[in-house]
Amino acid sequence: MFNNIKHFGGLCRMRKIKLSLGAQIFIGLILGIILGTVFYKNETAITVMQSLGTMFIRLIQMIVIPIVISCLTVGIANIGDIKKLGRIGGKTLLYFELMTTLAIILGLIMGNIFHPGDFINVHALKGTDITKYITTAKSASGHSGILDTLINLIPTNVFSSISSGDMMPIILFSVFFGLGTAAIGEKGKVITDFLEAVSQVMFKVTGWIMKVSPIGVCALIGVTLAELGISALIPLGYFVGLTYVTMIIFVLVIMGGVARLFGFRITTLLKVIKEEAVLAFSTASSEAALPKNIDRMQKFGVSNSIVSFVIPTGYTFNLDGSAIYQSLAALFLAQAYGIHLTLGHQITLVVVLMITSKGMAGVPGASFVVLLATVSTIGVPMSGLTFIAGIDRFVDMGRTAVNVIGNSLATLVIGKSENEFDHEKEKQFDVNPKS
Q1: pTM for the complete prediction?
Q2: Strand, coil or helix: 302
Q3: What one-character DSSP code corresponds to residue 421?
Q4: Can you give the residue ranges of every domain in the chain?
């Protein structure tokens, strides 16, 4: 018997089981659900989990900006041609606008077909405090016009933008810095070599941080459930379920159709970025997935210059999951309050959402802030948003994952359209990496 046990132990050591990072994150997600349910309203457990989750997110935030600056500057310097950059930039922004508009329209179509608001009695629901969102909305709405948005893209002090994490001014500076580096020719090689080394160091650090991501995921999902409880979902379960179904349709049908137009399958892309999508879903943070997403798409075959430009820009301007949620939530609240929206009203809603979602890009809690700025135009009282604030975190997980998938698809589309995609790398890419 003892010999058998020894033999089994030796066999286990010989066949050392090594779970992929995606599997580890999924296990962390399940453990977080269990811990959140067990420690519901337990202040000590909530504090511990909140602290662990915050530390993980801060570790990610620590490396995001160095990666964006180094990768984008080197990528733009390698493009060199300002005409080519203008073509790529114009194509990228046009694609972003088209996809987010389709996402808004799909949300409205699903809301009109299934009428989620008809099943809700707003007077029976318990509201949640949204004071912080109202304050943010008031400060953001003061500079949400197109001209103000363009002005705010230009940093007066890039170091101030870096310290505040304001992504678009950082991107604009990096574009000009990269073009300037290319313009001085051989003298600029020392800069590109240095920044290339910086990006490699940051990706190495990313790998280290990802080793603790299952703990961060467990803590973040755990604290959400411990604070709100599964019971928070029950009254609004139909709305949450419909939102997720709409997002799945958008990914498989609309994104799938775009993928087929450019010669690949959406299922292939989902396999490639499954770890990043699960990480984005469980943390409800696009930042958490951004560094690894950039690295993954480069390894899959998209050129560094395309990846470094499209993904950080999409992080602010291509939020397909958020667009679906905003249109569906606006229609849901109108229905809940018995407000009939004509076709004209809904077309107006599409236009308003297109403007407000871009005007408030980068604002903390942007999806909810956009709703605050939008629902008043269709007659929904601001207090109506208190009813869905409580479940916003649950929906945020799904929309963040869709945002990451959408930006990955955009990278492939732009890369293939510019012939900046390496098919040899694609063939050699392992969709089931061992992390």
Answers
A1: 0.84
A2: strand
A3: B
A4: 2-428
